[in-house]
Structures are given as structure tokens and as C-alpha cells.
Amino acid sequence: MKIKSVRARVFQWKGKTVPPQGNFCSNAMDLVYSNTESMSTFRFHSWTVVEIETDDGIVGIGNVALAPAIAKAIIDQYLAPLVVGQDPWDYEYLWQRMYRSTHAWGRKGVTMAAISAVDLAIWDILGKSVNKPVFKLLGGRTKEKIPCYYSKLYRGDLRAMQDEAQQFLDQGFTAFKMRFGYGPAHLQHGVKENLRSVEAIREVIGYDNDLMLECYMGWNLEYAKRMLPKLAKYEPRWLEEPVIADDIDGYAELNAMNIIPISGGEHEFSLYGFKQLLDRKAVSVVQYDTNRVGGITAAHKINALCEAYSVPVVPHAGQMHNYHLTMSTLASPMAEYFPIFDVEVGNELFWYLFDGEPIADNGFVQLRDDVPGLGLTLKTEYLDQFDIIE
Ligand SMILES: O=C(O)[C@H](O)[C@H](O)[C@@H](O)CO
Ligand SMILES: [Mg+2]
After folding, report:
1. Per the database record, which ranges form the Mandelate racemase/muconate lactonizing enzyme C-terminal domain (predicted)?
2. Strand extents, DSSP E, 140-237
3. Is the CB–ligand 1 distance for residue 42 below 6 Å?
4. Given the CA of residue 336, which atom of ligand 1 is nearest to it?
5. Cα–ligand 2 centroid distance for 389 (angstroms)
6. Is any atom of ligand 1 closer than 6 Å to the C-beta of 217?
7. Under DSSP, is residue 317 helix (H, G, I), strand (E, B) or coil?
8. How many CB atoms lie within 10 A of CB 113?
9. Contact 23, 39 (CB under 8 A)
10. Ligand 1 binding pocket includes 25 (Cβ within 6 Å)
11. Considering only CA atoms, which residue is closest to atom 5 of ligand 1?
12. Domains in the chain, please, with CATH?
């Protein structure tokens, strides 16, 4: 079997969107003077879908959501020529070809995300070619079904956030991630607002359920150090990305305080990036995303590393490309779950692009043994609501 063609298309959403409301999630731009564009840098409304076809007619599907138009250009100009004509079963060789030939300017960020999308499509082909779901090629089923945590609860009106939490508590979720709306720029008023929001969600979900707290890199070390003791009484399962991804010393210092487990890795890349985080004891929970970190070829190795370091993996974003990894390793106890909503941040867009994503049932998602590959197909229902860039 040989790879015949690689097609990367950007799907730009032009359908209905929910308008941004205030500072609904702290983010890295919050610390920059005159941050009026903070929320626009946070939202993303396009996605790149990669289809790789083999000479025997199998089509593998991969995807990348990080800087989709640039990822497409990297795939078209650099990666496609490296994999066309090759045997997809030589996936490690192909991965190294892509990684090493772009190394001078790639390594992290959008290049690794582009490599991830190609790697995902290759693994989809592998599964389809032997009629097995991808998780069966990675170690198989380690769980009856995958526990997942509800992930939305952006900062808005507290009553509305409580209603949202109640609605999904009633649907059987036992773990919830909420977003902070405030950071260092909002001074003591913001500190109080942040605490008020956590208290409001705890009021609804109680203390028998898990609560995760998301900063999305919108704090700094000094602010995070002040916040940790104040947040401790709410017993969060973790505090996520308190500082920017490059501040590994900051992560290590906060994690060493041992007040709340610090999580991160959503903006880290490759086996080497995670080795560094683990060696420094920078995070207590690893959150790579398979469609950024280097695809399944890289994520599978990171799972093994995390197993050896006894650090749990809870991949960013859920979605099929992550669920197969979570299903096939004991290092990963659970998954994230973005619910189906109108397009807001952009996290929802995959529901409009793909069929096959499992819908949570009572706080769990299930992978089927009889669906080969990653299990996704392109959805036709919303195609007319995207501008498609070939
Ligand atoms: O962990 C997450 O789910 C991410 O940080 C989200 O993708 C981002 O939208 C922050 O809410
Ligand atoms: Mg996050």
C-alpha cells in the first residue's frame, strides 16, 4: 500500500455564531497593555481537514485546528511531498522525515500541528486497512468506557453559569471545568470575582463532583501564587495553564507549592517538550492534544513517558483523535468533553464538521469495536455554512 495523494482544505465557518461577551475567559493577551483584541485572539472559527488517499482507495482523515490556513500551507508545500509514494505502515519513518526536514523552522507550534494532521490521517488509513479501530492498534481497550468531564462554563453571568452546570449535572456529568474571567489586570476586584465564580459553581455541583479551573495562560506567576491558597478551599482537581506555556519554571514553582495540582501541556509539543515538563515536575496532569503534539505517533510515546512518571494524561479537547489514545492506556484516566452548542469560541466547530464523534452518555463516551480507523467522516449537513479553501 502506497500513499497516492494528500489533500488539505480549510473550512471557514460562516454560519451563525454566538457573539463574545466580556472577558469570558482569561488568556495570554490579558497582560498586554490595551487588550481590546484579547477575545478575538482567543476565538477561532476555521479548521483544516486533511484527506490522504492510498493507491488501494483507502482515505484517511486528519484534522488541525491551530492556525489552519498556515497549517494547510505547510502540509501542501512541505509535508505532502514527503509522504506521497510512501507506505503508511512506515509511520515512524514518515514522522521523522516530516519532523527532521522542517526542524530548522518547525519543531513546535503550527508546524507540529500540521505534522499531527498528516499523522492522524495515516493512522486512520492503518486502522481502515486492517478493519480495526485505531485504539486496537495502540494497546486496545483498557476501559469499559471513557469517563469524561464537561468543559465549558465560560465566565458570564453567575446565575447563567449555575444553570449551565445544573443542566449538565442532570445529564450525569460528575466533573466540570470552568473558566476564569479575570486576571492580574483586574486587581483585587478581579480576585474577588474569580473566587465568587468558583463558589457559585461549587454551590451547584457540591463536593462529591470534580471541579477543574482554567486560566488559559491569562495569569502571571505572582498572581497565581496569591490565588492558589485562596482557591484551595474549593478543592479543585487541578488549576490549568496558570501562566504562559514557555514559563516552565513558573509551572514548576506553582506545582511545588503542593496546594492545587497544576495542569498543562495543551500548548506543548513533541516527546521532548513533555520530557522537559515531566523532568521539571512542572505539571501534575498532562494535557497534550493529539492534533497538535505530533499526532498519534508522538502521543503514544508521551503516554508511555507519563506512565513511567506516574503523571496522568487527560488530553485537551476530547474528540476522536484523543479518545483512541485515552482508551488504549492506563496512563489516561479520563477525557475532556466539549458539548454541542452554537459556534462560540470555536471548540464546538468539530461537531459541525464531522460525523462519528461520540456523544456523552451519563458522563461517559464510548468507542466502538466495529468502526475502523479513527471513526470520523466529513459531515454533509453543514457544508454550505463553510467557505472551503482548497
Ligand atoms: O482546556 C481547554 O479546553 C482549552 O483551554 C480550550 O480549548 C480553550 O478554549 C479555553 O477555554
Ligand atoms: Mg485548557
Report:
1. 158-261
2. 146-151, 175-179, 210-214
3. no
4. 3
5. 28
6. no
7. coil
8. 27
9. yes
10. yes
11. 216
12. 3-131 (3.30.390.10), 136-379 (3.20.20.120)
Ion ligand 2 nearby residues (CB, 5 A): 240, 266
Q: How far apart are CA 198 and CA 273, in angstroms?
A: 31
Q: Which grid cell is 98?
A: 516530516
Residue nearest to atom 3 of ligand 1 (CA): 317
- Separation of 179 CA from ligand 1 center, angstroms? 8
Ligand 1 centroid from CA 285, angstroms: 15
Ligand 1 nearest atom to the CA of residue 345, by list position: 9
pLDDT in tens, 11-27: 999 999 998 777 899 99
291 lines ligand 1 (CB under 6 A): no
Tens of pLDDT, residue by residue over 135-191, are 999 999 999 999 999 999 999 999 999 999 999 999 999 999 999 999 999 999 999
Q: Is the dihedral of CA 86, 91, 96, 102 positive or negative?
A: positive
Which residue bears the cell 470555536? 346
The amino acid at 128? K
Q: Cα 64–42–361 angle (5° rounding)?
A: 65
> Could you tell me the distance, in angstroms and rounded to a whole number, from the CA of residue 265 to the centre of ligand 2?
9
Amino acid identity at 288: Y
Grid coordinates given for 286: 498532562
pLDDT per residue as tens digits for the range 50-94: 999 999 999 999 999 999 999 999 999 999 999 999 999 999 999
Instruction: Determine the Cα–Cα distance for residues 22 and 156; give it in Å rounded to an integer.
Output: 8
Hey, what's the cell of 321? 483523535
